From TrEMBL:
Protein name, as recorded: PNPLA domain-containing protein
Pfam families assigned to the protein according to its UniProt record, in alphabetical order: Patatin
PNPLA domain ranges (all copies): 10-171
UniProt KW Methyltransferase keyword: no
GO biological process per UniProt: lipid catabolic process; phosphatidylcholine metabolic process
UniProt cross-references to PANTHER family, sorted A to Z: NEUROPATHY TARGET ESTERASE/SWISS CHEESE D.MELANOGASTER, NTE FAMILY PROTEIN RSSA
Family annotation (InterPro entries): Acyl_Trfase/lysoPLipase (IPR016035), LysoPLipase_patatin_CS (IPR001423), NTE (IPR050301), PNPLA_dom (IPR002641)
Keywords in alphabetical order: Hydrolase, Lipid degradation, Lipid metabolism
Length: 314
């Protein structure tokens, strides 16, 4: 029997905490009964895409993410002495495993492809088969925050370095029409950064680092680390300005790179519909602000309802 409507693909992009907006967009897609036949995901888009592809209800995702306060976030941190990253990601992987009713790509209800980057060669990779959790660990391994994941004989990190919004992958999977979701902040917009608390003295020597990462006050320390430091709020200028810390440099460097890559890829591969939520001074690691991110996604998707409905027309 011939397909009566076009195959619709969903390309969920990177964006860290801003990517929780994907949940709001999925809510609207379900309300409007927009069928999703396949999903391509990068970074946070890979994680949420996997949950949706596995059949996890959107309201369940929303509930779990809305409950992520500072204490819950602190429990997901498994710090390591920083040689290739601050955390090894095991607790985050366990968190995802508890939510996922599938362990392999083959068990998913909706076909899924996720992206990763070989940190040694710079090669963009697509993962579509095998161990779902290991694939997700690689897909979300943000450089400098998570250690690279050994996947076969490769060390993999976040796919956002090479494919921030995987429109092309969704088309390669067979989609006739693609809904793209971009939660990467435009560089001309205010973008929050994270600040390392100066009182810890972290980074001076290995002993101090060990003390920092094993302290009973880790929740407070990591809460300080996550605090937004929005550009433009500092009234000092010229010689009095302080240089950005290493976390600010890392996060903004990746944001700059992803914007440039994203612009080039959008010129080459255009989605039938691109949904881009608007954020105001939103830190990439402020997962405790899920309410705002989800609401931003909902608002952006609702503005596109006429276009969403037209996608289902042959």
């Amino acid at each position: 029997m011939a397909q009566s409507r076009p195959l619709i693909g969903l390309a969920l992009g990177s964006g860290a905490a801003r990517g929780l907006a994907h949940i709001g967009i999925l809510k609207v897609l379900e309300e409007e009964k927009i069928p999703i036949d396949l999903i391509a995901g990068t970074s946070i888009g890979a994680a949420l895409g996997a949950l949706y592809a596995a059949g996890v209800p959107v309201h369940r995702m929303e509930k779990v993410m809305r409950e992520l306060d500072w204490r819950a976030l602190a429990r997901l941190i498994d710090p390591t002495l920083p040689t290739s990253g601050l955390m090894d990601g095991n607790r985050v992987a366990t968190f995802l495993a508890e939510l996922l009713p599938a362990t392999t790509f083959e068990e998913l209800r909706i076909p899924l492809a996720i992206t990763a980057t070989d940190v040694e060669t710079g090669e963009a990779l697509i993962i579509r088969k095998g161990n779902l959790l290991e694939g997700l660990r690689a897909a979300i391994a943000f450089p400098g925050i998570f250690t690279p994941v050994l996947f076969g004989d490769r060390f993999l990190v976040d796919g956002g370095l090479t494919n921030p919004v995987p429109l092309d992958i969704a088309y390669q999977m067979g989609a006739d029409k693609v809904i793209g979701v971009c939660t990467i902040p435009r560089m001309e917009d205010p973008a929050g950064e994270i600040s390392l608390p100066s009182e810890t003295g972290a980074g001076r020597d290995k002993g101090r680092l060990h003390e920092f990462f094993t302290s009973a006050n880790i929740e407070k320390l990591w809460r300080d680390l996550w605090q937004a430091d929005h550009p433009g709020n500092d009234k000092e200028s010229g010689r009095n300005r302080k240089p950005p810390n290493i976390f600010s440099i890392c996060s903004r460097s990746v944001a700059i790179m992803e914007n440039r890559i994203n612009d080039l890829q959008m010129e080459r591969t255009r989605a039938e519909l691109l949904i881009r939520p608007v954020f105001t001074a939103f830190n990439m690691l402020e997962f405790h602000r899920a309410d705002e991110a989800i609401a931003a996604g909902e608002q952006a998707a609702r503005q596109c309802i006429p276009q969403l409905r037209s996608l289902c027309e042959a």
